[in-house]
Amino acid sequence: MGNLLYIIAVILVIIWAISFLGGFYTGGIIHTLLVIAIIAVILKVIRGAA
Question: Record's Pfam families (predicted)?
């Protein structure tokens, strides 16, 4: 399950970077999903280290 979380987070970051740097409009949902993915990864790292 942890690997799936990292894969989804990386895919979202790649999509966000392409849309941000390429000037494409993907809507606000990609930013929301990106924030959720980053928070989930940070929580996983914090809980794994403790």
Answer: DUF5670
**Terminal C-alpha separation, the chain:** 19
The whole-angstrom separation of Cα 19 and Cα 3 is: 24
Is the pLDDT reported for residue 50 higher than 70? no
Rounded-to-integer distance, Cα 11 and Cα 13, Å: 5
Give pLDDT tens digits for 19-40.
Answer: 777 766 666 777 777 787 788 7
